[in-house]
Design goal:
A seven-stranded mixed sheet has the order 6-5-15-16-17-14-18. A six-stranded mixed sheet has the order 8-2-1-12-21-20. By secondary structure, the protein is α+β, with helices and mostly antiparallel strands. β5 and β6 form a beta hairpin. The chain has 14 helices and 22 strands.
Length: about 500
């Protein structure tokens, strides 16, 4: 018997704000431009904060290309910058900073992965940091920016991420979406209309009723639409990711301009510097029970050693996720998963959901695709979460309650197994739906001092002179490449011409 309540998807209503709303609207409109789908974007008031930045990975470029946004034009118009990774300062009180970049490290020899070669040499007394063999780390530390035309064939896989000024970026996406034909309806707030297992409409603040076949929730962490649907309860990750306040402000642009973000740990949290062409975005994550908001602002200035703009904003948050698809409502971005602000998780989480949605776009309102979508996207969110827990768990800040907790808390099972295997023998299990590749996990582990008890026995079969020549060749190659790279300032100046 046919379920007469099921109908084809023809009208799509996207409710939300800022980059999540407009990236979703622009990408869906572009992807399904030749279908008979209609897209309406209901725009709620912005929650972006002055000086806010969107750090993201190089994979964002694929979405820009899909939208026809030329990278050079986008970077120039927004004042955005490239980033080669993050430098972690103070993760151990006496250890030097650790750089975790978006490139591989070293080169395998006779099919023996490089990190096993490095572990053997380290055990024999070599005193060269693992990150010194990574092209992104070397460029960042020498004040250079890796360019796309660098000849890295056979040596490294390397990428660049982005620091995107949040408000101009959202406005650019808004213009693109509307120009491409997305219907735009502003609203102060919305009231969802749910009948049985389905949402049938949203009522806008001016009384207008907007009906639809499919509703996409990009409202943010309160999940204004998705939370009204069955079986969409929020699962907290607070036991692993306890920070619950984010302070956002900005400072003068850095001179010279770094090609990386700096994340500095302090007793109650961390403070991050994200260089942009026209200012330096500042974020600080901390725990409400340890620090008042006024104390947090004072601490941020001391930690980053910069004069901060007093127009700081504090946003409460709780890391966790909910099932992203229920009935005919799908949550994207923070409506589905709230990640800790560490690293570059917010935008990749949005892109993960959006990418899977375009691949599994529903034919009708039955929600048939929801089970597989929730499973794959949920796993991908968990892997992103685990990458953040991995970084936090590697800290060596002793006798500081929050850092002691982050170091000693029981890990999620998949991450616990990953750590156990790596710590034992240097091999690293890689799961499906990982955002960060094996090289990133190994660089973070070794950089923060998680040294495996042993290494691949194949590394012991190599003659020491051959191993030494291999290391010398790798370091020489990195040095030569870095010297040929421009400075971030030179790239920024060229972009403004």
């Amino acid at each position: 018997m046919t379920d007469t309540s099921v109908r084809p998807v023809r009208t799509v209503v996207i409710v939300g704000r800022d980059e999540a709303l407009w990236l979703t609207a622009a990408v869906l409109q572009r992807t399904f431009a030749r279908s008979d789908l209609s897209f309406t974007a209901v725009e709620l008031p912005s929650l972006l904060r002055p000086g806010e930045v969107l750090p993201t990975l190089g994979s964002q470029a694929g979405f820009h290309a899909r939208l026809g946004l030329e990278e050079a034009v986008l970077m120039r118009a927004l004042g955005a910058t490239f980033t080669l990774g993050q430098q972690y300062v103070g993760w151990a009180k006496t250890a030097p900073p650790v750089f975790v970049g978006y490139s591989s490290t070293g080169v395998a020899l006779h099919n023996v992965p490089f990190h096993h070669l490095w572990l053997r040499a380290r055990a024999s007394g070599m005193n060269v940091a693992f990150e010194d063999f990574a092209i992104n780390a070397a460029c960042a530390k020498q004040g250079r920016l890796l360019t796309p035309d660098a000849d890295l064939s056979g040596f490294a896989d390397a990428d660049r991420g982005f620091h995107l000024p949040a408000a101009p970026y959202a406005e650019m996406l808004r213009q693109v979406a509307i120009k491409r034909g997305v219907r735009h309806l502003p609203a102060a707030h919305v009231s969802p209309v749910v009948k049985g297992p389905e949402m049938t409409a949203v009522v806008l603040s001016d009384g207008q009723t907007v009906e639809g076949d499919l509703f996409i929730d990009t409202t943010g962490s309160d999940a204004r639409l998705l939370s009204q649907m069955p079986e969409t309860g929020f699962s907290s990750w607070r036991q692993w990711l306890p920070f619950d306040r984010l302070l956002t402000t900005y400072a003068a642009p850095a001179t010279p301009l770094p090609a990386y973000a700096q994340i500095t740990a302090f007793r109650s949290g961390w403070a991050g510097l994200f260089p942009l062409r026209d200012y330096t975005a500042v974020q600080q994550a901390y725990i409400r029970d340890e620090l008042s908001d006024d104390e947090a602002f004072e601490a941020a200035a001391m930690v980053v050693k910069m004069s901060l703009h007093p127009q700081a904003t504090v946003t409460p948050f709780e890391a966790g996720r909910r099932p992203a698809w229920s009935g005919n409502v799908i949550g994207l971005g923070e409506a589905a998963a709230v990640l800790d602000p560490l690293g570059t998780a917010r935008m990749p989480a949005l892109l993960l959901g959006l990418s899977h949605l375009t691949a599994l776009f529903p034919l009708d309102t039955s929600g048939l695709e929801s089970a597989v979508y929730n499973r794959t996207v949920g796993q991908a969110y968990d892997r992103l979460r685990d990458a953040q827990i991995w970084l936090y768990s590697l800290n060596k800040r002793r006798d500081q309650p929050v850092w002691d907790h982050l170091r000693s808390v029981s890990l999620p099972p998949e991450l616990a197994y990953k750590r156990e295997v790596f710590a034992a023998c240097g091999h690293l299990p890689v799961y499906d739906d990982e955002t960060f590749d094996e090289a990133w996990w190994i660089a973070a582990g070794l950089g923060h001092g998680l040294f495996p008890a042993t290494h691949d026995v194949r590394a012991d079969q190599l003659a020491e002179p051959e191993l030494i020549r291999h290391f010398q060749t790798a370091l020489g190659y990195v040095r030569k490449q870095v010297e040929a790279m421009p400075t971030p300032d030179a790239v920024s100046r060229a972009a403004t011409v």
